[in-house]
Amino acid sequence: MQTLNVWVEASPEPIGRLTAADNGAVQFTYERAWAYAAASFPLSLSLPLREEPFGDAISRAFFSNLLQENDQLERVIAREGLDRGDMVGLLAHVGADCSGSVSVLREDHPPIKRPGSLSQDYDALSEEDFADLVLRLAQGRSLPAEMRDPSPVAGFRRKISLAALPGDCFGLPKAGSGAPTTHILKIPDPDHRHEARHEAFATALAQQAGFNVGDCIAGEVEGQDVLLITRFDRLVVEDQVYRVHQEDFAQALGLPAELKYERRGRVGRRFDAAAIARVLNATDRPALAREQFLRMTLFNLLIGNNDNHAKNHGLLHVPAQAPVLAPFYDLVPVKIVAGFRQDLAFRIGNAQLPHEITGSDLESFCVAIGIPSAGANRILCPAATELIHAMEGLSSNFPREMRPLDNLIGEMAGLLNSELGLGLALRERDAHIVRGGGWNLS
Question: Of 187, 302, 362, 435, which residue has the fewest beta carbons closer than 10 angstroms?
């Protein structure tokens, strides 16, 4: 049997134990002191505070979602001769670097994650070091030992975590400090260089339309497109930086990453409207959370973000209260680029494709996520009207290179206008046609 201690940044002692039996079965158990402390919080909606252990399926779903899908994990698998399914064995090697406030460490390992002091716990990067870092990520080259990513983030390579420091520069936590980072630097895939600018543009658009989003900025360094993302699971108070515990909807629902799309699961074990309702019902203000999720679903339809799967929605956990919806993130208008799937991450009513959606589907979706049927139209039509009005005004000033997105917004606004009987006068646009390539579509 192998046992690892589970920590969060705020805990003076381990909050639980993750074990793997000789037959490979995994189990997680909270420490009794954490399970009953007034200031405690659960690791996940799927792992509520209790003394009794959690079995293999639920434990595996949460902790497997902590593994980073990047070069570091691949090197560990190759070096140690581990099976990809040996989750506890993998976490024994990479669990110190889990995203968020959680770390999973060997029993003899001291706690590793601590709050950081911006003035003391970070080494600033010079402009030359920063440029070299970008080029190494873009070219798939190894980072210097002193630049090892202190907080690898879930997803594939071409990302690194950094801290924004006083003096308008970035830095890395000093070795052994355990200090948090504040930003993620992402280099888009060479075949999809437009993604950085698309995501930044869509995120700014959502913010202007009144949504709470995770800030991001697109730019260019040494001829490389980059995206700088502000981490929403951090709290900066003057000189101090703290981690805020977060989980994605897959973890909250006890689903492995492989089931992040509705089409991959089965009834009762998939990311669908009923599952979304369970998460929203557990938030601190369920009625508000349902309305926010509905509005964001409409926004994603308008911009063609069909990739809003379970790992692209999150919750923030704070002590002594129910979780809150995380700011919306990973807003990418994938439908304006050739080669991306056209089907939805989760069904809207019975519709699997955006153009199939009817007014009845939208009303059914409202009810399915927990909005009472009597109030569905009362909330749905005003929300759609307000959002379309906002998008009509904003999209009229889009730059030329974002004209495909303007055309898509017009097409989807027309569908919502017709199906919901909103009676809005919409600006005429060209037909939405994907010609391939991305940012320079014309």
Answer: 435
